């Protein structure tokens, strides 16, 4: 059976942007930015996206396009080692963990979209009366399970339809819709009374927040950069494995990162004026789920035409979430199709059934949900990307350079050697460092001991990888 490829040039970019643009942009980004120094944070964040995110993205692209396989098969076939092949199972696990919590949040959003849409004709949706109490009632429990399964079913239908007729066609419709609706919402939000105050809060240039606590900002910025660019789970390996023609991966990767950042900034231009127009202080709603479902839902309830605005807003978030969740499901599905020759529909049904269960656990138990959505995913993504980078630098080496240069323009070609050096040496040290920070090492021992440990650990990993028998 021949493997599918994207039908068009833009199809690959839109699918990858669709994966990147999601809850991370709309729900998390504006708050992380506002809390960490506004537009000063944006500068640091952009730096990290360009210096860590884009090189990481390119590492995943290079592995995927070179091998035409999803992560497990890619690592095995490019290295000739079964150890790497077994490590590939790690990405299947990560994808299932991601999808388990993401689908629950997707379910909440879908519920709000359905409720808002149904209320367009009548009086306001049910959550208008008391947003806080309403959200508390539906966030966990069997209500949450139902909508999780519904959201997962939508995800499954698109993935089932295939790379071209499902993912590519779906994201070609969804991404332009997201952009148009977001711009319209931002324009409308600009006319609200609190807009000026909101921009002052969101975009204020406050370098002192960063100077005081640079390493405190670096961690959140790096975590956000990985999550929002869909790095570390093998999504981008898988999507790049469907790239047939020669094109500049570096150009595509940069385009994707820029579009993704734009959507994050835009989302803040929608969210903050809404809150400020009603005098809701962003601090009051917290940064998590509450901000979206309690703070914003409360704002909609008090605005003239609020039901319509709410419907448009939750439509944006639903589409953004769906175009991301399909990229998570595609990882285990591609694995089963590539490695075990399963029919796509059997693979979708099997993985779907599993995630119905694992997602339901997250929907029923809030502490498990919190653990999966927080620490677990953070650690899995950081470790996952580190392994890809080490693979590119220490196993592929020259092959990675060839693949990077193929189709690349002059600028990208000139940057290819620095890229390989960063990917193989600097970035793994940086990521191991952030992992140690996640476990609280720098808080206990201080910066330099942590940095030294990170460097030492990285060297041990490099040496271990070099010691692996060479590919046949
Ligand atoms: N990037 C998406 C977001 O911002 C989430 C996402 C999709 C993701 N696929 C991923 C995160 C793979 C990590 C890995 O919402």
UniProtKB/TrEMBL annotation:
Q: Where in the cell is it found?
A: Membrane
Q: Which InterPro entries match?
A: Na/ntran_symport (IPR000175), SNS_sf (IPR037272), YocR/YhdH-like (IPR047218)
Gene Ontology cellular-component annotations: membrane
Q: Name the principal localization, coarsely classed.
A: membrane
Would the keyword Transmembrane be found if you checked this record's keyword annotation?
Answer: yes
Keyword Glycoprotein part of the UniProt annotation: no
Query: Which ranges of the sequence are coiled-coil?
Result: none
Give the record's membrane topology: Multi-pass membrane protein
What protein name applies here?
Answer: Sodium-dependent transporter
Entry superkingdom: Archaea
Q: Which organism is it from?
A: Halopelagius fulvigenes
Family matches, as Pfam families? SNF
From which lineage does this chain's organism come? Archaea, Methanobacteriati, Methanobacteriota, Stenosarchaea group, Halobacteria
What UniProt keywords are attached to this protein's entry?
A: Membrane, Transmembrane, Transmembrane helix, Transport
Q: Which residues cross the membrane?
A: 12-30, 42-63, 84-110, 145-163, 175-202, 222-244, 256-280, 286-305, 312-335, 347-364, 376-397, 417-438, 445-465
């Amino acid at each position: 059976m021949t493997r599918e490829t994207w039908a068009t040039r833009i199809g690959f970019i839109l699918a990858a942007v669709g994966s990147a643009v999601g809850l991370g942009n709309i729900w998390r980004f504006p708050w992380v930015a506002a809390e960490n120094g506004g537009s000063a944070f944006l500068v640091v964040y952009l730096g990290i996206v360009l210096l860590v995110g884009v090189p990481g993205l390119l590492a995943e692209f290079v592995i995927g396009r070179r091998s035409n396989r999803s992560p497990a098969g890619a690592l095995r076939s490019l290295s000739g080692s079964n150890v790497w092949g077994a490590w590939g199972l790690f990405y299947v696990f990560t994808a299932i963990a991601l999808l388990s919590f993401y689908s629950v949040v997707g379910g909440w959003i879908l519920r709000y979209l359905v409720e808002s849409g149904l209320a367009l004709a009548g009086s306001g949706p049910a959550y208008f009366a008391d947003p806080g109490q309403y959200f508390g009632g539906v966030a966990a429990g069997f209500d949450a399970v139902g909508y999780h399964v519904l959201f997962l079913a939508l995800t499954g239908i698109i993935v089932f339809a295939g790379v071209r007729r499902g993912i590519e066609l779906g994201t070609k419709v969804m991404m332009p819709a997201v952009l148009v609706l977001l711009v319209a919402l931002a324009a409308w939000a600009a006319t609200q009374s609190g807009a000026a105050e909101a921009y002052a809060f969101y975009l204020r240039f406050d370098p002192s927040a960063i100077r005081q606590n640079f390493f405190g900002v670096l961690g959140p910025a790096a975590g956000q950069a990985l999550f929002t660019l869909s790095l570390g789970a093998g999504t981008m390996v898988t999507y790049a494995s469907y790239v047939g023609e020669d094109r500049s991966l570096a150009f595509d990767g940069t385009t994707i990162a820029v579009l993704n950042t734009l959507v994050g900034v835009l989302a803040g231009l929608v969210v903050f004026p809404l809150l400020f127009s009603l005098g809701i202080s962003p601090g009051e709603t917290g940064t998590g789920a509450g901000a979206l479902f309690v703070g914003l839902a409360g704002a909609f309830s008090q605005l003239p035409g609020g039901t319509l605005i709410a419907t448009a807003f939750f439509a944006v978030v639903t589409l953004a979430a769906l175009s991301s969740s399909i990229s998570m499901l595609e990882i285990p599905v591609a694995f089963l199709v590539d490695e075990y020759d399963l029919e796509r529909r059997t693979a979708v049904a099997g993985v779907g059934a599993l995630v119905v269960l694992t997602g339901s656990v997250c929907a029923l138990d809030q502490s498990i949900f919190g653990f999966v959505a927080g620490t677990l995913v953070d650690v899995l993504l950081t470790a996952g990307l580190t392994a890809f980078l080490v693979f590119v630098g220490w196993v592929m080496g020259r092959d990675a350079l060839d693949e990077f240069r193929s189709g690349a323009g002059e600028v990208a070609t000139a940057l290819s050697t620095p890229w390989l050096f960063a990917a193989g040496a600097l970035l793994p040290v940086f990521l191991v460092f952030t992992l140690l920070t996640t476990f609280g090492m720098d808080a206990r021992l201080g910066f330099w001991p942590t940095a030294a440990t990170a460097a030492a650990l990285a060297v041990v990993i490099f040496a271990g990888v070099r010691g692996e028998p060479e590919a046949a």
